[in-house]
Amino acid sequence: MTRYSIFSLLRNALNYHEDWPRAWRSPEPKSSYDVVIVGGGGHGLATAYYLAKNHGITDVAVIESGWIGGGSTGRNTTIVRSNYLWDESAALYEHSLKLWEGLSQDLNFNVMFSQRGVMNLAHNQHDLREISRRINANRLNGIDSEFMTPQEIKTFVPIIDLRAGGRYPVLGASIQRRGGTARHDAVAWGYARAADALGVDIIQQCPVTGFQIENGRVRAVETGKGTIEAKKVGIVVAGHSSVLAGMAGFRLPIHSLPLQALVSEPVKPVLDTVIMSGAVHAYISQSDKGELVIGAGVDSYVGYGQRGSLPVTEETLGAICELFPMFRRMRMLRQWGGIVDVCPDASPILSKTPVEGMFINCGWGTGGFKATPGSGWAFAQTIANDMPHELNAAFSLDRFRTGYLIDEHGAAAVAH
Amino acid sequence: MLVIPCPYCGPRCEIEFSYGGQAHIARPEDSAAISDETWADYVFLRDNTKGVFLERWVHAHGCRQWFNVARHTVTYEILASYETGAKPPKLDFVTQV
Ligand SMILES: Cc1cc2nc3c(=O)[nH]c(=O)nc-3n(C[C@H](O)[C@H](O)[C@H](O)COP(=O)(O)OP(=O)(O)OC[C@H]3O[C@@H](n4cnc5c(N)ncnc54)[C@H](O)[C@@H]3O)c2cc1C
Ligand SMILES: [Zn+2]
User: Fold this and answer.
1) Is there a smaller number of Cβ atoms within 10 Å at the N or the C end of chain B?
2) Nearest CA in chain B to A255
3) Consecutive H or E run containing A172
4) ipTM (interface pTM)
5) DSSP state for residue A54 in the 8-state scheme
6) Percent of chain A at pLDDT above 90?
């Protein structure tokens, strides 16, 4: 791998940037691997990278049915934060945030992580109490989290209308200043390039269609490019988790729901932080290109169609226009959807499965982008050691039987 | 946007309805006696079908009746709607995913 640096940039400038090497290989799959990761989203690629980097396991393939990052990794609104309520979640998401802080250097790829702050608005007394409770819980866990009064909000975000047309009055907010955004494609590409450099095979355009299971243990993966033997398999397919679990003969407590986002035409800088409102299902930030990036709520019904329904778009944009009257004349350029894998307790599953040698990482719902580094880190250790990492021990499939749910509906039910 | 055919009111826009998830799930009898496993299955495990899915809807802003719908979860095509308690209709629909 050629390292990216100011010198490689200068050298390639002399050649009119025509001789940059490919960022990763496109090998044909071998007939067997120590570990096969199914799903080339951020979480799958990060898992492969940390398997190689932290555990020295390099005989690894990532098998992706489409193109890497083409799932929710390349479709999300890129909000990164760690202000979750419970200790278990706080530890996992905060570990992730710490990895984000050094990720561009670690991967030698600019993921454009921008700690511009993430605010959660309160519109009524209940929101205020919920936000205060979460700020306190965050601080006890060493996570930066502050309360903002309406006056402080107005100073920080002058374009907001605190009365919001009388419909969504802003009574306060929490802010995590270390939160922010990152470039989603770069996260997939950066992990892919770094994993490839350590020997991981990234195989695209290759759907997994089944598993060979012998005496309760996974033996091989059936794919569009033939049978690939595997000592261990990690399933990291987000919206398609139930489909893959079905192929392996077990069920998951997951609903796959459509979640949509929009971007506007690019304009000059007007918003230099991320604003979220769980109550009105609206999330907004401004990209470096100047587009407003707007996230909406989920459609309530099961859907694998990668598009959202128009009533949801209307509800979200209605709320955005009330909160930011100056955006009423903005035109939207694109609208799209992804499939999010929602768990009953709004927390993920990183776990062993009923099949020996098979592991699953799913249930991140509307908010897994932020967790990409930490999820890959913990899941790699789970696969390498056949045992959960302390960060994800609580996020087992078993918790739905034992009742030890990790209810993050306040921090993650609708929020991204 | 879905146009959902309420068996009682006819076709209406999806915003008049609320979703009830998978249809035809019976609560286990004698729930005090069953294992945690069976109870957890009943409470948490649902089919999450990619293809034709039988699901419940309620016409919340209309007649307020619950009923069932057969819908394709990739194309979002609605193939049938029928009353709660009725058997699902025979669908000669080839699942194409
Ligand atoms: C509109 C939207 C906005 C969001 N906003 C945020 C946000 O602001 N902040 C945040 O933290 N999170 C957000 N999320 C959630 C976040 O995007 C996801 O939780 C996260 O990206 C999931 O990553 P992943 O790698 O697990 O899944 P994906 O990126 O979906 O990757 C799964 C991959 O598996 C592949 N696959 C599926 N089936 C097969 C098969 N049979 N064989 C091989 N490969 C297969 C798919 O093609 C896909 O590439 C948002 C999601 C959406 C849709
Ligand atoms: Zn009706």
Assistant:
1) C
2) B48
3) strand A172-176
4) 0.93
5) H
6) 95
B residues 48-77 closer than 8 Å to A (CB) = 48-50, 53, 55, 71, 73-76
Supply the CATH number for residue B15's domain. Answer: 3.30.2270.10
Residue A227's pLDDT is 98
Establish if B95 belongs to a structural domain: no
Give A283's strand partners: A276, A295
Cβ proximity of A319 and A328 under 8 Å: no
pLDDT at B96: 43
pLDDT given at position A156:
97
Is residue B91 situated within a structural domain? Answer: no
| Residue B90 counted as domain residue | no
Dmax over CA atoms of chain B, in Å, equals 44
Q: Does B35 touch chain A (CB under 8 A)?
A: no
CA closest to A302 among chain B residues? B73
Polymer length of chain A: 416
Q: What pLDDT was estimated at residue A213?
A: 98
Q: 3-class secondary structure for A320-335?
A: HHHHCHHHHHCCEEEE
Q: Do A304 and B73 touch (CB under 8 A)?
A: yes
For A254-310, write each residue's pLDDT tens digit: 999 999 999 999 999 999 999 999 888 889 999 999 999 999 999 999 999 998 999
Q: Is residue B63 part of a domain?
A: yes
The verdict on A400 touching B (C-beta cutoff 8 Å) is: yes
> Average pLDDT for residues B66-73, to the nearest whole number?
97
The pairs formed by A226-229 with CB atoms below 8 angstroms and a separation of 24 or more are A226/A29, A227/A31, A228/A29, A228/A30, A228/A31, A228/A32, A228/A33, A228/A36, A228/A61, A228/A63, A229/A31, A229/A32, A229/A33
CA dist., res. A68 & res. A39, Å (int): 8
Contact status of A243 with chain B (Cβ, < 8 Å): yes
Q: Name residue A274's beta-bridge partners.
A: A118
Rounded CA gap, A400 and A135, in Å? Answer: 27
Query: Is residue A68 scored above 80 in pLDDT?
Result: yes
CA distance B52 to A128: 42
- Number of structural domains, chain B? 1
Q: Are A398 and A253 in contact (CB under 8 A)?
A: no
